[in-house]
Design goal:
This protein is α+β, with helices and mostly antiparallel strands and 289 residues long. The protein has 2 domains: 177 residues, no CATH class; 96 residues, 2-Layer Sandwich (Alpha-Beta Plaits), CATH 3.30.70. It has 10 helices and 4 strands. The longest helix is centred in the first third of the chain and has 46 residues. 18% of the residues are buried.
Length: 289
């Protein structure tokens, strides 16, 4: 009966420790997802800043195609789209809600190329340099983009990045504290066992090793549970999260899983090492306090 109670008590202790670690690692995984996809989301916003190249009236279609291929071959252009005079008039008519061509008697719009610039170039300095480059093409009459919008987006993205970095640092410290406290409470319950092993002549490394090894197992089991919980969220809410999370980015997801395992193993092992050392230095009468 006593052995059965002891076995149940040990199982309950191991289970609660593993569950606590897995929940912390799950939150760590969510934080990692936030970090990965914040960059993706900001890039998506920045790359949707449009640059319109207004073409000259006499530009031939073959010259337009050649210009598009030249632009798409550069490192700073994500995509291009040719908009002829008729398409431009139809789009403006749809926005205005009335047919301005019939009112004027002619179509005053020029053909253009809508350009999407890569996120790393969507800043005031780079955009000014790109504008100068675009104007060097003989087919381009004018370059139009919202300069104030580019500046505001860059300022807001910097602020958002600093806020997320600050919150992430705070959360990371909290995760470390939670795992450390969980491990210390687990070791605290075995402080008399540690002292007894010392009394029979066991060396510190001999006493420490099984605790660290078992703690590493807690970290591995906790990481497995945390990853399974993340996968459940992925598959349950894939349709709702597809705009925020790139499920095709297998490399980032694999690195996230690896990070969860490494963080779980490293923190549990390190916390156990210091917790055991603390009780190894204590005398018997100090164990009661």
């Amino acid at each position: 009966m006593a052995k059965e109670k002891l076995r149940k008590s040990l199982f309950s202790s191991y289970f609660s420790t593993t569950l606590s670690i897995s929940l912390v690692l799950f939150l760590f995984g969510l934080l990692g997802l936030l970090q990965i996809n914040t960059k993706r989301l900001t890039d998506y916003i920045m790359e949707n800043v449009g640059v319109t190249l207004i073409l000259k009236e006499d530009t031939r279609e073959v010259d337009v195609l050649k210009l598009q291929k030249t632009l798409e071959a550069t490192s700073f252009i994500k995509s291009t789209r040719f908009v002829d005079k008729k398409t431009a008039a139809d789009e403006l008519k749809k926005d205005l809600g009335e047919d301005f061509v019939d009112f004027l008697g002619y179509n005053p719009l020029l053909s253009s190329i809508d350009v999407k610039v890569n996120a790393s170039y969507t800043n005031p300095e780079s955009m000014a340099q790109l504008e100068a480059q675009f104007l060097k093409f003989p087919e381009v009459q004018e370059v139009y983009y919202q300069r104030n919008l580019v500046k505001q987006l860059n300022d807001n993205v910097k602020k958002l990045s600093l806020i997320i970095m600050g919150l992430s640092a705070i959360m990371f410290i909290i995760f470390i504290a939670l795992i450390n406290n969980t491990i210390r409470l687990s070791i605290y319950a075995k402080r008399y066992l540690i002292n007894s092993m010392q009394l029979v002549g066991a060396t510190r490394s001999f006493i420490r090793f099984p605790f660290v090894a078992k703690s590493i197992l807690h970290g591995i089991y906790g990481a497995i549970i945390a990853c399974l919980m993340l996968l459940m969220i992925f598959f349950s809410y894939q349709a709702e999260l597809k705009q925020l999370i790139d499920f095709q980015d297998s490399l980032s997801l694999a690195l996230l899983v690896l990070g969860i395992f490494l963080f779980g193993i490293f923190m549990t092992a390190l916390s156990t090492y210091f917790a055991v050392n603390k009780f190894l230095r204590m005398k018997f009468d100090q164990l009661y306090y």
